[in-house]
Amino acid sequence: IITNSTHHQALKDLGKNLEIIARADDGIIEGVCDFSGGRYLLGVQFHPEKSFEKDGFSRAILGDFVKKLYEKKK
Predict the structure, then answer these.
(1) Which of 5, 13, 18, 34 could form a disulfide with 46 if both were Cys (CB 3.0 to 4.6 A apart)?
(2) Beta bridge partners of residue 20, listed in sequence order
(3) Residue-wise over 3-21: b if at least 16 C-beta within 10 A, else e?
(4) How far is it, in rounded angstroms, from Cα 12 to Cα 14?
(5) Residues with Cβ < 8 Å from 61, sequence gap 6 or more?
(6) Quick one: which H or E segment has residue 29?
(7) Contact 44, 23 (CB under 8 A)
(8) What is the DSSP letter of 49?
């Protein structure tokens, strides 16, 4: 996918249970996730809140985040 990443910093070392789920063409880590089941953790190196109106992938990320917040509130 094409993202709106404009950061000058990036991940070098991953934290416990984090897995890389996206990389840029230059190898920069653009997305990480924790699939261990103990917590909801999704990290992206771009801004889906700035592109969700035009991009289905960004909408899916934000939708999942809102869904998890709602589930936690119950």
Answers:
(1) 5
(2) 32
(3) beeeeeeeeeeeeeebeee
(4) 7
(5) 42, 44, 48, 52
(6) strand 29-34
(7) no
(8) G
Q: Residue 37 — left, alpha, or beta (φ > 0 → left; ψ -120 to 50 → alpha)?
A: left
Angle (nearest 5°) at CA 30 between 25 and 31: 135
Q: Give dist(CA 3, CA 30) in Å, integer.
A: 9
pLDDT at 70 (0 to 100):
86
Percent of the chain's residues with pLDDT above 90:
23
Pairing verdict, β 42-44 and 18-23? unpaired
20 contacts 14 by C-beta, under 8 angstroms = yes
- Mean residue pLDDT of the chain comes to 85
